[in-house]
Amino acid sequence: MDELVGRKIPYSASAEQAVIGSMLIDSRCIPDVIEKVKAEDFYLKSNRDVFETIYQMFAYAQTIDPVTVVDQMKVRGVYSEETERNLADVMRMTPTAANALEYAAIVRDRALLRRLGDTAGEISEMVYEGSGEADAVLEAAERKIYMLRQGRNVGGLLPISAVINTVFDQLSEAAASGKKIPGLSTGLPDLDRQILGLNRSDFILIAARPGMGKTSLALNIALHVAVSLKKTVAFFSLEMSREQLVTRLLSKAAMVPSQNLLTGQLSNEQWRQIAEAAQLMSSSDIRIDDNPSLSVSDMNAACRRVPDLGLVCIDYLQLMQSAGSKNNWSNESRTQAVSDMSRMLKIMAKELNVPVICLSQLNRASESRQDKRPLLSDLRESGAIEQDADVVIALYRDGYYNKECENPNLAEAIVLKNRKGSTGTVNLNWLAEYTSFVSYEGNREEDY
Hints:
By secondary structure, this protein is of the alpha/beta class. The protein has helices at residues 13-25, 30-36, 45-59, 66-76, 83-93, 100-129, 134-149, 160-177, 189-195, 214-228, 242-254, 258-263, 268-282, 296-304, 331-352, 384-388, 398-401; strands spanning 203-208, 232-237, 286-289, 309-315, 356-361, 391-396, 410-418, 424-431, 436-439.
């Protein structure tokens, strides 16, 4: 179609051939090249078939040269009568493997231009077909451009061979890292072991009745990820102000009672602790938005503009606005809105490819039971939330209901749902004066 209307498709046959020729001339450049380009970046199918073959051979540590590649192409069923002649031409036309990364950069650039053209066409179709309101079309356009910027395709059928290669890379990366858990650590080793950390694209729900410490646990995790793991954290607070959140973070980081911070009654030693904690926190990258009328689309758009994002926290689900929402909700419409928002949050986690933690209120059903420990059915306003979430953690403190209990500081993080592992209860210690959680019985294991 592009040729018919006089438009030239952006690709460079010579650059594609030079990349393949470099890999065949000197296999030492292959690890660097496959980090730069993927098989789908090659426009010509013959070049794409050769690259895919070399990629798979490299993944399985096979010897790579023109003879072995031809043999493997026969095994894969992508060999043709012209294959050997094409490879001979490629070898002859490639002057040196020293410039392999420059050739790869050209191939990647042309592939990005092609995808950008395709995306622009899709956006034009949405506009002229009248397939939605302006805000919805703008949101879809932003999502498509963001995915291009991240180097990922928006939907589409992908061969299982490509997915297997990606999984193989993830396995190799996990084995090389030596980490005990695949995801980011929460800073609470017992909880990490139960949920295997905070994994990319996971939608994690922390649910509890008011006063149980939902916000405190989210701040615990955010502080650990930002300070100890050096990741960027986006924290959306629809209930508390930025100042209130930072005061809590300072109390935990400095181990100074929050009451003292609020009243200003601080000793010289406490001032020193706060100054050190403030300096430590200032060197981290926690970004806080306390706009109380944010929608999921607003948060998604804001997160797309944050470079090297590692974690998103939202406090809390029932206070969020859905797109075009109104204040005069009926019970049915509000339940549907919360269901829609939970689904959008899962989509957001997948698109951003980072863990998204969202806090949620529980309904009053648990209050009327003798055993007040939360159940999945206690999630407020929407049963769809439990379907969308990858992990559901409910918080419970017996000391909240029974001041005479044996251990009023004992808290339970009850994993009610866990797509990556088992459910169960993790015991934590609740430090009320610091509004903070620590490992049970003072277990301060080293972070993963």
